Give the backbone structure.
Amino acid sequence: MAQSMAANFWNRMTHPFGGSSSPEGVLENGTGPAPSVGDRYMQTKQGTPVWVVENVLSVTASRYPLVRLTSEKYPDLMKIVSLSTLADHGEFTRAH
């Protein structure tokens, strides 16, 4: 139930901006490969949860695409961040 509410919020938030669900080539400036659905990221602080990429959406209202993340341990927790935030290695690192 909570996840469907979060998905509805995500759709309402992004679709009015004329978003595209095609993130190919979004990191062409050499900051690394674009995240794919299922990629896992950890925040650099110790003891923080692992976040899993649910989708990446380009929106006209933002220079960078938005990435929807869910907590690996608590799937009802959702976080939406700019792709530039994931590319900032001071805040997030890819989990293997």
Remarks:
- The CA atoms of residues 20 and 41 lie 23 Å apart.
